[in-house]
Input
Amino acid sequence: MADELQAAALLEQRGLRSDAERRYRELLDRRPDWAVARFNYACFLRRGGRLEEALAEHQRALELGIDQPEEVHSNIGVICNELRRDADARASFEQALALNPAYIPALYNLALLCEEFGEREAALGMFHAILELNPAYHDALVRIAYAKRITDPADPVVRKLRRQLRRSHVDELARESLHFALGKALDDCGLHDEAFLQYEAGNRLGAKRLLPYDRAAEEARIGQIIETFTAARLATLAPVSERPLLFITGMFRSGSTLFEQLLAAHPEITAGGEIDYFGRELAGAGRAFPDSIAALDAAGWQRLGSGYLDYLDRTFPGGGIVTNKRPDAFEWLGLLKSMYPNARFVNTVRHPLDTCLSIYFQQLDGRIGYACDLANIGHRHRQYQRLMQHWSGQFGASIFDADYDAFVADPRPVAQNLLRFLGLPWHEDCLGFQRLRTRVRTASIWQVRDSVYASSSGRWRNYERQLEPVRRQLGQPSA
Output
């Protein structure tokens, strides 16, 4: 039987998910009471995005008395987290820890959840507890470095980061994270040249796991989007809904989370975070965007558009206007405007050099192929500007440029103009959003929580010499 579980796992590794699922189902039909098979099948379902089914299989594994149930409870917590069932996620992590207080995955995930709700001391306590249990659990040390502003290069956190980086057995992904965390700490201390060396080291490692970035291919793809979504084409596409949907987009690290949190403080808006519906569905069509849209017939177009509405209604019942904060969604604005004519788009903008530097200083997803090379980041920013110029020419009245630097200088008029653009009345809580216990899901949690965004505006001036590759791509004169 164990061989059959291994065979199903191998089928999945080869990309044969349908065959793998059939193998799991055949096995469970013969042995419906095998808890381990239920658990493995639940993990398979979760990896495929079938979260409700994964929850049911995990629950069945618990009912069958699986060994080490803390792992199952922790997995349930992770799934509830993805489904935005925050109370259920917290309860599941706590149940795992009640069974095994030293179970690090549950402790770490609960600490991350506490971070997202602004519970700094609770999160830090758990991260330190993890390091007591396992001093080599690098992710906990990295989170500690990001959760506090470090002013002394001799701080114990800095010493621990350096010590871990001296160890030869640290794997490359952990080493990458440690370099980024040490770069952040040294930047806090004002040691900018040394900080940049750490970021360089982290990005050299990160580049090995990123998808390749082909500048010529990217220019051609953006050109194809522009040619596909012309005014004439937009006029021929059938709307799916008149609902006033709200999308927040722009380059990564340009202030999207800050503006989402500002909006979420308004009683008529709910923060949806980074909803991956369109990215997942468009990728699942088997072709790259925009070819995936050209392949849709009328029924597929309607199904795609109504599926998003169903997702919102199911995930945020009674949520009013739900934000979708997808920085990379600027590529889809023509699609979204065609499906939802009353949609509004908040395009977050920031000084280009600060945006590009902040991307380089952040350990990002491996799918973001340009993120570890300053020249590639500058190139991607130029393509973003090119496409946004096109969208502004097509439906500029539906786009609001939310200026991060202007907000830092004087928040009130930017916030007032943003709400006016959305047709919403002013609400004073929008300027005090940091005090609210709304969930913040971003790489820069504490920057948003602590109102330290002012210190990150103009940070590029500390790294003018290193930013020359970006300047060249953006067509700016040298420093």
